[in-house]
Amino acid sequence: MTTATIPDLQGFETYFGLQVSDVGEDGSVIILGHHHNEPRRIVAALNRHAREFWGLANLVDDQNPGPGELADSLAETYAVARCGAACRDDQCGNCERVRAGQREWWITWDVAPGTPHSFPATVWRP
Ligand SMILES: [Zn+2]
Predict the structure, then answer these.
(1) Whose CA is closest to 30, among 77, 99, 71?
(2) How far is the CA of 8 from the centre of ligand 1 (A)?
(3) Which of 7, 44, 45, 62 could be disulfide-bonded to 18 (CB atoms 3.0-4.6 Å)?
(4) How far is the CA of 126 from the centre of ligand 1 (A)?
(5) What whole-number distance in Å separates Cα of residue 63 and Cα of residue 84?
(6) pLDDT tens, position by position, 39-90
(7) Distance 15 CA to ligand 1 centre (A)
(8) Within 13 Å, how many C-alpha atoms sit on residue 19's CB side?
C-alpha cells in the first residue's frame, strides 16, 4: 500500500493548522487530510473561513446554528488533485504541475481509497 501524499496545492487558506479551500460551485469546502476526533477544530476552521473569506457570520450564516449542524455535514473522503492544464500525463494526480503546487487545479473527491495518487480529505457540503 502506498502512503498517501497530500499535494502542496496553492489556493488554500490555513486556519488552526488546517488547510481549507472552496471547491466546486455549490459552496462545498475541502480540508486537506482526515482529522479524526477533531470536529471542533474543523468547525472552527470552517467558520473562520466563512467569516474571513465569505464575510458570513459562520459557515451556515446563522448566528445560532443548532448543535451539530455544522459537523453533521462533514464527510471524510479521498480525493485526487489534477492540474488545471489539459494534462496528457496518465499520472496527472502526481504530475509535475501537481507536485509543483500550481495555482490552477481541480479536485475529484469521493474516489475509492487506494485510488492512485489519492489523499485523505474532509469535505463539508452545504
Ligand atoms: Zn497533470
Answers:
(1) 77
(2) 14
(3) 45
(4) 29
(5) 37
(6) 889 999 999 999 999 899 888 888 777 767 777 888 999 999 999 877 888 8
(7) 28
(8) 12
Other beta carbons less than 10 A from residue 114's beta carbon: 10
C-alpha 45 to ligand 1 mean position (Å): 29
Q: Which three cell numbers stand for residue 22?
A: 472552496
Q: Is 15 helix (H, G, I), strand (E, B) or coil?
A: strand
Q: CA–CA separation, 108 vs 118, rounded Å?
A: 9
| Its pTM surpasses 0.70 | yes
Strands (E), the chain: 13-15, 18-23, 28-32, 74-83, 105-109, 119-124
CA 101 to centroid of ligand 1, rounded, Å: 11
- Residue bearing cell 473522503: 77
Q: How far is the CA of 18 from the centre of ligand 1 (A)?
A: 25
